[in-house]
Design goal:
The structure is a single chain. The chain is 34% helix and 16% strand. It is α/β, with parallel strands linked by helices.
């Protein structure tokens, strides 16, 4: 069958209609005109997507406190032991400190918290503006993060407070693992998110730095985009002209 291409021009963008049995574009990424056809919601991961992280900095900080086997508990995409329990919300912050003191008895709560937050290394200046731009275009912007009651408040205070704003200014809804009772890629966290938000997965682009998390989300019908840790992916939202 012959392929017929029709160009529709608007003031601020170029739209392409393809009369073909199957689109040449991958709907799981983004239509190449830079806008997401049919997408109404943007769901961001936090660490590795909006916030820069460095596992080794956290490992080194705990090693300095004498936590000799810390390496087996911390991962780039998931934690183990008390660290995982804290992210799942199955233990409190104070219970976490006590469990960690089984390994480093002399460490104070403040020292443990400081070592843990060394996982966070910064936030590119353009990320907040990217969120503001998406909101101004009419997208509903939300956050889904594997995090905990130590790191999340630290990130909010350090990176999401500017010009009198806070994290709730940037995101319509916050879905935090320790409040939801499960972590990505557990299907339960996506079920709970859908239930609480009322969003349609097929109208939602989920951006994460873990392929396992994206694969789990795709099972529910979410459109997905894999962001490389530390990379600037804001250009995926910029309109582009396509030559066909």
């Amino acid at each position: 069958m012959s392929n017929f291409y029709t160009l529709f021009f608007s003031y601020d963008n170029v739209y392409i209609k393809i009369q073909k049995e199957k689109s040449i574009f991958d709907p799981k990424i983004i239509n190449n005109n830079g806008y997401m056809r049919g997408i109404k919601n943007i769901l961001f991961d936090m660490g590795g997507v909006l916030i820069d992280i460095e596992r080794q900095s956290c490992v080194d900080a705990f090693l300095k406190l004498g936590f000799s086997n810390i390496d087996q508990y911390l991962g780039d995409y998931g934690q183990k032991g008390a660290f995982l329990q804290l992210e799942e919300g199955s233990i409190s912050e104070n219970q976490f400190y006590e469990l960690i003191r089984d390994e480093i008895p002399e460490a104070t709560n403040e020292e443990i918290a400081h070592a843990f937050t060394c996982f966070i290394t910064g936030m590119p200046e353009n990320k907040l503006q990217m969120i503001e731009d998406l909101k101004s275009q009419g997208y509903r912007v939300m956050l889904l993060s594997n995090t905990n009651p130590i790191i999340f408040p630290f990130v909010c205070d350090k990176y999401f407070k500017s010009d009198g704003k806070d994290v709730n200014h940037y995101f319509e809804k916050l879905f935090l693992s320790y409040e939801l009772g499960s972590t990505k890629p557990d299907p339960n966290i996506f079920r709970e998110l859908i239930k609480r938000s009322g969003i349609m997965p097929e109208e939602t682009l989920f951006i994460d730095d873990s392929q396992d998390n994206l694969d789990a989300a795709a099972q529910f019908g979410f459109e997905t985009y894999l962001a490389k840790q530390g990379a600037d992916f804001s250009d995926i939202f910029i309109p582009k002209v396509i030559n066909v």
